[in-house]
Amino acid sequence: MSRLQPARGTADLLPDSMAKHRLVIDAARTASARYGFQEMATPIFEFSEVFSRPLGEGSDIVTKENYSFADRGGEILTLRPENTAGVVRAMISGGLTQSLPLKYFYAGPMFRYERPQKGRMRQFHQVGIEYLGPDDSLADAEIIACGARFLASLGVLDDCELHLNSLGDGDSRAAYREALIEYLETFADQLSDDSKTRLAVNPLRILDSKDAGDRAILQDAPRLQDYLNDVSKAHFADLTAALNGAGVAWVFDPLLVRGLDYYCHTAFEFVTTSLGAQGTVLGGGRYDGLAEMLGGPKVAGVGWAAGVERLAMLVEAASVNNPKVAILTADDGARQAAFRLAEQLRDAGIDIDLPTSGAMGKKLKKADKAGVRTAVIMGTDELAKNTVQLRNLGDGSQQELPLDPDNCSGLAAAIAESLLAP
RNA sequence: GCGGGUGUAGCUCAGUUGGUUAGAGCGCCAGUUUGUGGCACUGGAGGUCGCCGGUUCAAAACCGGUCACUCGCCCCA
Known about the structure:
With 422 residues, this protein is α+β, with helices and mostly antiparallel strands. The chain has 2 domains: 15-169 and 229-314, 2-Layer Sandwich (BirA Bifunctional Protein, domain 2); 325-420, Anticodon-binding domain (Rossmann fold, 3-Layer(aba) Sandwich). The protein contains 15 helices and 16 strands. A hairpin with a 5-residue loop joins strand 15 and strand 16. Helix 1 runs antiparallel to helix 5 (137-154), helix 1 (15-34) packs across helix 11 (308-314) and helix 5 (137-154) runs parallel beside helix 9 (230-246). The longest helix is centred in the N-terminal third of the chain and has 20 residues, at 15-34. The protein binds one RNA strand of 77 nucleotides through residues 1-3, 5, 8, 51, 54-55, 59-62, 64-66, 81-82, 84-85, 112, 114-118, 120, 194, 205, 210, 258-260, 276-278, 280, 283, 305, 328-331, 359-369, 375, 377, 379-381, 389, 391, 393, 396, 398.
């Protein structure tokens, strides 16, 4: 509208939307704590290699979709586009590979230079967990169950479907990749233009192409699950047995793939149809090769991340935390006494709003709209008698109570009682 | 990066084949109510019609560009 607008792909989080964000983040924190994940945070920017090494220096993602810049010291830095690489980097640089396994929860802003769309911002927020150390499939099961519990606590799990696939270990995937390329090359001229380039750059991604012609060709393509070796099959079977035993519903999705080499075995996404094209609400998988690619020792890992904005769109409005008690002055003679009483009541643990402008009627109206339930009304008349008026904004009843300038405990008790009433 | 749609008051929107003072509802402010909210009524403030340029006697409307939002593609660590 005017020149003063937020930068493209960013948005202010005003109290109403902030409340929904907090609801989502708090639910994730609570659910992950139940599984023993501990909250941590990594810096919002890192040396660019942290993100570029696992992806390949020249990849489109690195060159076109990151916010990278040189600082005044000439270091090349990147605003984090995701948090897994940062967590793994923290594990390596902190020497934490001595203390495996590690279970971490994080929440915070991420940055990707992409064209904004519904559920796709340039600054967005994620919550996530990373389970570092175990290669046991029960670790995969635990994080998936944790994700399901998180979504359930938000009341959105019923709107989502859990898609699950196995990418197999490195050997399995290499064999499949070869077979897929061989098959697709015989159709190379019939593939969509996008898929022609994918064939050279990232052939597995052709599997989730939306092009109808591509999909027809894929009907008879070799299937990833036929190329899994015994180790890979056992890992997947054990995971699905655990999910079934715990009652976590899932669907097999052979087209759910990850393009990068450090992924292996489990890939999963919770997907909703109610958000249009950006329907993945929580996604993750196993990344046993990532730590090594970052220059550390080989450490297995599995985790997920969820988009806070997307989940916030699915959540009903959350309540904004306003004080339920306001002190309203009837005239300027009560200003200082009101300020003093407000501080005393805050010391007593009561949230107090102290509006400073407007006539009595105005203050009451605003307090009512803001959700205030009890108003403490002070004026020079009351001060002269050392009293205040305690007004219940629900039913309009009002009583005059004594005010001890040095001890508000009696008044605090009366206020607390008034808030208990329905 | 590619294609479609949309930009009018704080918000949601109307605005006739281009025609002179651009409207409504909600919200906001004030009054009816001289220290007391919700309801009602009355009045009021608030807009260079996203921005720049063009066509025309005349542009919110038509044309071009640009910015933003939006939907899809791409990408999705």
